[in-house]
Amino acid sequence: MEQQNVIGIDIGGTTVKLAFVTYDGEIIHKWEIPTVVEGGPEGMVEDIATSIRNEQRKLDLSHEDFKGIGAGAPGYISLEEGIVYEAVNIGGWKDVPLSKLLGEATGYNVRIENDANLAALGEYWKGAGDKAEDLLAYTLGTGVGGGIIANGELLHGANGTVAELGHMTVIANGGRHCNCGRTGCLETEASATGIARSALDGIEQGRSTSLKEQYDQSGEISARDVFEAAADGDELAKEIIDHVTNVLGLAISNMAIAINPSKIVIGGGVSKAGDQLLEPLRSKFDRFTLQRTGSAVEFVIASLGNDAGVIGAAYLARQ
Amino acid sequence: MEQQNVIGIDIGGTTVKLAFVTYDGEIIHKWEIPTVVEGGPEGMVEDIATSIRNEQRKLDLSHEDFKGIGAGAPGYISLEEGIVYEAVNIGGWKDVPLSKLLGEATGYNVRIENDANLAALGEYWKGAGDKAEDLLAYTLGTGVGGGIIANGELLHGANGTVAELGHMTVIANGGRHCNCGRTGCLETEASATGIARSALDGIEQGRSTSLKEQYDQSGEISARDVFEAAADGDELAKEIIDHVTNVLGLAISNMAIAINPSKIVIGGGVSKAGDQLLEPLRSKFDRFTLQRTGSAVEFVIASLGNDAGVIGAAYLARQ
């Protein structure tokens, strides 16, 4: 029997990304639909099922051309039980049996996981992770997400909170408030939001910086602005990048000491800084990690961009 | 065919522990021999092989009564390659093909792993870990060792440094020197040695403490002394335990956020303090971890004592 295609779904706060993917991980067709939370999980599931049928029809593909569905969502998810325990960003779902609902609506077997975990799995399978059996993935975006591959498998954890790498405490006393209700999480310092906030804090403290003029003109500052200002020699921006890479280097080295990875994949908006991020990060990481642990590690920038989630979801569907 | 017995070996700096273990993990017979490093790996392997044959003869067991050998040693080890990359405490071995040497000397298939990893595997299989599919194990002894079970499997890592949990950096700036060459490792604060040193530091700083009298009389202070003094209300001892559980709570919570375990097993000499350790540790842990992550976790004291290593080794041999 021929090895069948699969369907990868990545449910996000703004859009649901979908893709038809070959058994070998090539995207045949991808598209997205808006995330509409008002109809609850049932409404969203119906939107997804209808959209899949429409796209299959357009492409002259039948139900039987696909083996099953993998789906990711932002929240605490149990693969084993097929339940989304909690997903704040898509309408505050609680204990939603997503595998069952989506299975009934589409007629496919459905496997679900946390979106950041699936992005890690995607990078492992077809991206910069290059099938490294032991791999850490960080997504530095609005927040900080993570995924861990160890012994060649995505880790799933006991109750849907595995690889919540953005919530490692990096500032034990004080530190900024985090959406999780605590303080000092990695996410509050090393996310795009955290980096921008560090710039605003500096401006508020009256630091002399090229970022002030920009802020006065446009009313906003992005992480990208901070990296650009640092490249132009701005002292405050350079200090912020030094701080961010120091905190991130410490957090990643502490994780590397546990997992002993051969690849560390950095993705998300902040990773667009490329070597301007990776070079200082590598040097801070080496300072904090065991020499032998460090010698096994290669840092790489994620290569799949926004497709990582649907490709990881497809890999999950394949299993 | 009947499921065969296996042989578990735990090579330590002072003694080599050996056990004949049933397929189900019951110890039939256990014994130990001194660790003699002078003859190099070949000498030690010969000692072990001879001792196994002698004990088999004594017990009227034959070579064929056993399926194979699992062995642990303190160092950086590759299970896959069967090589001890580096083992400082047993004569400074470097790149020793232990599986091959021990296999040739005994006629059995041999699988090797780091000793702390095997202790974790032992506790998982037959001890306090109770087959929790996601589990962290810490051994708080002279140093701090660790092992991680995730997705129901012992993690092996990329180059033999997996779960070196004692070398998580817990004091980013300053901190005590560690044997690994860096500073601020968990081991420098939360090992038995670290706890005793904190007491000595307090005495040197002229703190008023019942530990001083004891030190003046006996010339030494142990971690156990510190726990006993704290139970009697000694302020310095109470502060040390507060500090140790704080540092340990932070380190373990940062690891729990990655692994999302349902069990955290604490072993080694320091764990003999029991609830006097676990109660403050739990409260510090909860402060630093995600609420949902914390809700999945049970802290338990290791139950196999010095047998954990040979039982974990037996489990490895069985696979």
TrEMBL record, chains A, B:
Signal peptide: none annotated. It comes from the Bacteria. Keywords: ATP-binding, Kinase, Nucleotide-binding, Transferase. One of its GO terms (molecular function) is glucokinase activity. It is an enzyme of class 2 (transferase). Its EC number is 2.7.1.2. Pfam families: ROK. PROSITE patterns: ROK. SUPFAM superfamilies: Actin-like ATPase domain. Belongs to the ROK (NagC/XylR) family. This is Glucokinase.
